[in-house]
């Protein structure tokens, strides 16, 4: 007969699967929530996507001026991604695995890194490229039919202006991010090809610190 389990009894650690263990002060486990915009898993309690963030902003918010510490993570990346990350030390977005990014072109991978993980290549089978509209030209502040040279110049100017890494503060960054997405989408619709996103050094005010170590796999 199995022994009774009292109210104070605890399961042996060997019976707990790692994914069911509550990390730090989080009320929910890692993987209990999925961010459809970033396309990554997180914690349902605080909607956070930093897996090794010990302190849950909901249960234990930081005091003014206090900085959250996080364990270093070891991430495996392809050699071409490692070279890009070396040139872009401010990147702190989600790092794609070698299997995820092996089908991305060099331009698409650069765009992902240069946008700090914001612009992820679309991979929808049979997807047709959108036809340019008057609204697309308006987003780029151009008249319909503007020549390619001026189109590219306008795109680059606006992409640099609204690049999220040049903005800080939740409201300002969110506004810039939305405009940045529209600028990229408008240019791609008009130009008919993937837009090359310019590299921008992230602002130091309110910027994030990279918290992982790179391991190159061939």
TrEMBL record:
Q: One Pfam family, please name it.
A: DnaJ
Instruction: Using the record's annotation, list all stretches that form the J domain.
Output: 135-195
Q: Could you tell me which CDD domains the record lists for this protein?
A: DnaJ (cd06257)
InterPro entries for the chain: DjlA_DnaK_co-chaperone, DnaJ_domain, J_dom_sf
Name this polypeptide is given = DnaJ protein
Q: Which organism is it from?
A: Symbiodinium natans
The encoding gene: dnaJ
């Amino acid at each position: 007969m199995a022994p009774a389990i009292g109210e104070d009894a605890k399961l042996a650690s060997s019976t707990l699967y790692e994914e069911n263990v509550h990390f730090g002060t989080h009320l929910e486990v890692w993987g209990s929530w999925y961010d459809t915009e970033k396309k990554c898993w997180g914690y349902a309690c605080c909607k956070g996507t930093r897996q090794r963030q010990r302190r849950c902003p909901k249960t234990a918010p930081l005091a003014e001026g206090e900085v959250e510490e996080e364990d270093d993570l070891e991430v495996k990346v392809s050699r071409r991604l490692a070279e890009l990350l070396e040139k872009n030390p401010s990147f702190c977005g989600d790092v794609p695995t070698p299997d995820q990014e092996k089908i991305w072109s060099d331009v698409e991978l650069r765009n992902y890194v240069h946008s700090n993980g914001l612009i992820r290549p679309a991979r929808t089978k049979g997807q047709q490229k959108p036809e340019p509209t008057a609204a697309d030209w308006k987003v780029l502040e151009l008249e319909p039919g503007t020549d390619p040279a001026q189109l590219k110049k306008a795109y680059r100017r606006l992409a640099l202006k609204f690049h999220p890494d040049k903005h800080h503060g939740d409201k300002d960054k969110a506004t810039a991010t939305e405009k940045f997405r529209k600028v990229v989408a408008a240019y791609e619709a008009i130009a008919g090809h993937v837009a090359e996103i310019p590299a921008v050094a992230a602002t130091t005010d309110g910027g994030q610190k990279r918290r992982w170590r790179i391991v190159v796999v061939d």
